[in-house]
Structures are given as C-alpha cells and as structure tokens.
Amino acid sequence: MNAFRLAGDMTHLLSIILLLLKIRATKSCAGISLKTQELYVIVFMSRYLDLFRTYYSLYNSLMKIIFLGTSMCIVWYMRSHKVVRQTYNNDEDTFRHFFLVLPCFVLALLVHRNFTFIEILWTFSLYLESVAILPQLVLLQKSSNIDNLTGTYVFLLGAYRGLYLFNWVYRFFTENHRVRWIPWLSGLIQTAIYTDFFYYYIRSWKNREKLKLPA
Amino acid sequence: IQSDPIKDEL
Question: Can you tell me where the transmembrane regions are (chain A) (predicted)?
Fold first, then answer.
C-alpha cells in the first residue's frame, strides 16, 4: 500500500459516501445517472469475485464490501425508494449503457492476461469502469443546473483513478517492475474521459460560478 | 495460482 493508492481509495470512498448522503439528505437523485450507478454495480461484482476466495487484508476485504454495498444501495434508492425514485429523470438519462457492457465483455474475451473465468471478469470490470461515467457525463451536459454535491461527486470519482495512475508508476519503480498494460491503459482512458469535466469544474470553482458543461 | 500483485488493489 502506498500513499497514492490510499489517497485514491479514500477519494473513491468519499465520492460514494457523498452521493449516498446527497440522496439521503435531499431525498432526491436529480442529476444522477442511474445507468452509471448500475454499471458500477456490474464493475464491482465482476471485479470482487475473489472476495470470498482470496484474503489480502482486512482493509481490502472491508473496502470491497463497502463498495459493493453502497453501490447497490444507491441503485436501490434510485429504483425502489418511494420518494427518491420520483426524482429520477428517466427520459434525460438516455445513454444506452448496454452498448458499453457488451463491447467491454467481448474485448475482455479477446484481450486478457490469462483465459480464466476470474481473470476475464476482472479484465471486463477494468474495461467497463473506464467508460462507466459516460452516461453520467451525458446527463450533466443536459442538466441546466448541476448542484455542487453532484459536481463534487463526479470530480472525486474521476480523481481517484488519476491517483491510481500515480500508484502504478510508483509500484512499477519500487516493486517488481512488472508492466501491466490492461489496468494502466484502462485507467488512463478512464481519467482522460474526465479531462473535459475537470477543466469546466476547476474553472467554475476558480471563477466562483455555477458549473455548466457545454452541450 | 501464482498470486498477482495487482490483484490486491481495489
């Protein structure tokens, strides 16, 4: 464990907690894409299959349970909670996210490290996570009024994988110098997708004005 | 299974 990775995990955890608090406090999920949340449930379920098979550390197991639990909880709130579900804007959240799941799965079947069930799903989860934010970014472009909590949520979610990139550089130079193209490139693409959002988010923060993404 | 170091990441 290194500082970059711990900072990345904490940033990721903070983003999810922030979203959960926003939904619970405001009893509203306006501006949040259910599709991105569903994609993240698929990402965590396909990545954390080894949760009950391989024990790395208490931290590792605890965080996996927290990520799985909170992401499913958020989807439950947006789909089934009697008040929150009324605030979900279905016809704005239009991204056909299953167009992301299938190509990622096929790609994982073609490009992977070992052809085993666990490895294929782990690789699939990396590919899917790199594009999982797209429905949320599309929804933000349509939203005329992005509230601060939603903006901060997306910012932290994008920042966490950026910190992981530093973690991989650090581990490459300090550990076994092992090259890992699949997580590295997936993480790079994932972070690159946020650059547009990062630019407008930081600019709105500097100019103290409302966050607005160009359509 | 040879343990894959990156798998201890989240």
Answer: 55-77, 98-115, 121-140, 152-170, 182-202
Which letter does DSSP use for residue A85 in this model? G
pLDDT digits (tens, 9 = 90+) for A167-185: 999 999 999 788 999 999 9
CB A177 within 8 A of CB A120: no
Q: H helices of chain A, where?
A: 3-26, 34-47, 58-80, 98-110, 117-131, 134-142, 148-174, 181-206
* Structural domain boundaries in chain A: 3-207
Is residue B5 within 8 angstroms of chain A, CB to CB?
A: yes
Interface ipTM: 0.87
Sign of CA dihedral A86, A43, A130, A160: positive
Where on the phi/psi map is residue A55: left (φ > 0), alpha (ψ -120 to 50), or beta? Answer: beta
Query: How close, in Å, is residue A215 to chain B by CA atoms?
Result: 33
Q: What is the pLDDT of residues A2-59, one digit of tens each?
A: 999 999 999 999 999 999 999 999 999 999 999 999 999 999 999 999 998 899 999 9
CB contact under 8 A, B10 and A180: no
Query: Cβ–Cβ of B9/A63 closer than 8 Å?
Result: no
* CB atoms closer than 10 angstroms to residue A107: 14
